[in-house]
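Lecture 7 notes: from sequence to structure.

We start with a single chain of 182 residues. Read the sequence below before looking at the structure.
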Amino acid sequence: MAAHETHAETWPALPVADWQDTRDTLHLWTQMVGKLRLELTPRVNHWWNVPLYIDARGLTTSLMPCGPHGLEARFDFFAHELVFERTDGARRTIASAGYCPGGADEGAFYSYTYPEPAGFRERELGVPGASFDTSLGEFLLPYRAVREASDPEALLLAFLRATYRAGAEAGTWPQAGDAAVS
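Now the structure, written as C-alpha cells:
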C-alpha cells in the first residue's frame, strides 16, 4: 500500500446489494465451466483438476484436453465475456465463440476464427439473424434473435455449428462431423 492510500481505497466496500446480479451470474457461470473442466480433465486428489486460475484479464481453466484438440475457457472481466478457445493442431488456429453483453441492445453471441482464413467473412451461414460484422471481424447473432426464436437452443446451436464449419471449410481444417462441435 502506497503511503497516500488508505485502507478504504485498497479494500473498497463491496455491499452485495450493489452487485447481487453480477455475483449470482458469475457464480452460475463458474459452476458451469467447473463442470466442463471436471468432465474434460483427469481426476486428481481433492479435486485439484478443476480449479480456475487467475490470469491477467480474469479467470481461466488453462488448456484442457478435448478430443484431439485443446480447449480453454476464459472469463475476461475487462471485456465482460466468457470466451471458449479451441486449438486446432499445429496450425494454432483458434475458433472462438461466446456471448458479449455489449454491442446490441441485449448483447450478442459472437464467433470468430484467428487467424481469419481467406473467404471466412464471406460465408453465408444460413442462420436467421446472423451476420458478419466487418468492424469487429466476427460473426454475430443478436441475443434478441435467439430469445425470440421458436427454438432458441436450436438457433444458437445452428449458429455455432455454422460458424465453426465456415472456419473449417475456409481454413481447410480436418473435420470430424457435427458430433465434434455439438
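Residues 4 and 10 are 11 Å apart (CA to CA). Keep this in mind for problem set 3.
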